[in-house]
Amino acid sequence: MRGYAWSRYFKASIAWVKEVCLESWTPIQKGLFFSYLPFTADVWRLAEERLGAELSEYWSRIRPNPFQARGDILEAAEKSLVNKRPEIAIDCLNTLKHENRPIPSRLATDAVKQLLTDSRAVGHLDHHNLLEVIKHLQSAPDVDVEDMTWIEFQCLGLLDRFSGGSPVFLERRMATEPSFFHDIVKTCFRSEQDRDKPLEIDEQKKAMAEQAYRLLHNWHTPPGTTTDQTIDEAGFSEWIDATRILCEESGHWTIAQEMIGHSLTYHPAGLQEILKYPAVAKCLDALEHEHMRRGLATELFNSRGVHGFSGGKEELDIAKSYRSRADQFDLSKFTRIATSLRGLAEGYVRDAERDAKRDPFSD
After folding, report:
1. Is the pLDDT of residue 198 over 90?
2. CA dihedral for 10, 13, 14, 20, sign (positive or negative)
3. In this predicted structure, what is the pLDDT of residue 363?
4. What is the distance between the alpha carbons of residues 173 and 183, in angstroms, rounded to a whole number?
5. Using the 8-state DSSP alphabet, how is residue 140 labeled?
6. Which of 123, 171, 327, 351 has the most CB atoms within 10 Å of its CB?
7. Strand partners, 225
8. For residue 179, what are the contacts with CB-CB under 8 A and spacing of at least 6?
9. For 91, which DSSP code?
10. What is the SS3 assignment for 40-85?
11. Does one domain contain both 220 and 348?
């Protein structure tokens, strides 16, 4: 049936479809008939005319190729959204992106939001297309910050750096809004003031906490980072002061320091750049910020990732690099940072000594 319908359509175009008498057909039969035809504007417009209130019999059945819509892809996206097929709208918007045609930000935002609240649609979606639409929205100048915050939070599993994406708005807000960072920390970590209180398990709160932890664990935008990828030192200091007040009051300052130290391992901070920002280095070196340095050291250690066996050679090279960095911080009179780096270096020396004695072929 599908092959016959396609053949007749391409030979006689929409004129043949209009001549088919559908008066005695049921809505299901009409929907099936139109779903067998190419995904073109003349088909979905005629389906709307012939099916009327039963138009869902058409839209619920189609698995279209957006490229068939040609110059009407934008209309296809709009129609898909109206008829509760957000996954089709996402595919259409990605087609527009592929063809370097403009994408209305409001339409794209509505499509993504509708999709993320429709479990059926998510199951039929090409996740690459969703990622591309989100990345487009992240670079659009007219998107709503609250909308993008919600979208990115729902899609943290998709917006990892292995896929080429990142939660741009969430990271930016954490780096510039102390209250937002504080809310994220509170969502996934218990207050030190509640250590002796029984823990109540709530599945919804548990899911939120897992998402919040994922965000913090992958946070690569240090506080005070500007849009031109430098650090505003005055903004950094103000952010630290405001965050400390909020976190000390709620009992989250220790873990907050570790998360801040974690973020300082990344550009535009990081060991290679942090000395360019004396206010940042001074804050990290402060006596009372031991946990911040611990977060930095932990993330530096973890950032090595997967590695092979070298009999200790690689470990000794890393130790040498950290000792060299420590000397630079010592010369700049940031001795506590230097001590943390030497501690890392000593750990790698111990690993090297152990690996040098180990048989690489043994368990």
Report:
1. no
2. negative
3. 56
4. 11
5. -
6. 171
7. 231
8. 242, 246
9. H
10. CHHHHHHHHHHHHHHCHHHHCCCCCCHHHHHHHHHHHHHHHHHCCC
11. no
Identify whether 195 is part of a domain. no
- Report the interhelical angle of 178-188 vs 233-250 (nearest 10°): 40
Q: Are residues 65 and 12 in the same domain?
A: yes
Q: 172 and 297: one domain?
A: yes
Residues 37, 173 within the same domain:
no
State which amino acid sits at residue 61: R
Phi and psi angles of residue 336, each rounded to the nearest 5 degrees, phi first? -75, -35
| Identity of the residue numbered 324 | S
Same domain, yes or no: 128 and 32 = yes
Looking at the fold, whether 133 and 229 belong to one and the same domain comes out as no
Could you tell me the two tokens for 271?
């060991």
Number of H helices and E strands in the chain, helices first, is 19, 0
Burial category of 193 from C-beta neighbours within 10 Å (exposed 0-12, middle 13-18, buried 19 and up): exposed
Q: Please name the residues in contact with 186: beta carbons below 8 A apart, sequence gap of 6 or more.
A: 250, 252
Q: In the structure, what pLDDT confidence band is assigned to residue 113 with cuts at 50, 70 and 90? A: very high
Range of the domain at 27: 2-154
139 and 104 in contact (C-beta within 8 Å)?
no
Q: Is 305 left (phi over 0), alpha (psi -120 to 50) or beta?
A: left
Q: Is there a single domain that holds both residue 207 and residue 150?
A: no
Query: How far apart, in Å, do the first and last CA atoms of the chain sit?
Result: 62
Integer-rounded Cα Rg, in Å, for the chain is: 28
What total of structural domains would you count in the chain? 3
pLDDT digits (tens, 9 = 90+) for 123-168: 878 899 999 999 999 999 999 999 999 999 999 999 987 888 999 9
Residues 6+ apart with CB under 8 A from 79: 44, 59
Query: Under a CB-based contact definition with an 8 Å cutoff, are residues 31 and 57 in contact?
Result: yes
Four-residue CA torsion sign, 135, 136, 138, 143: negative
Same domain, 128 and 208: no
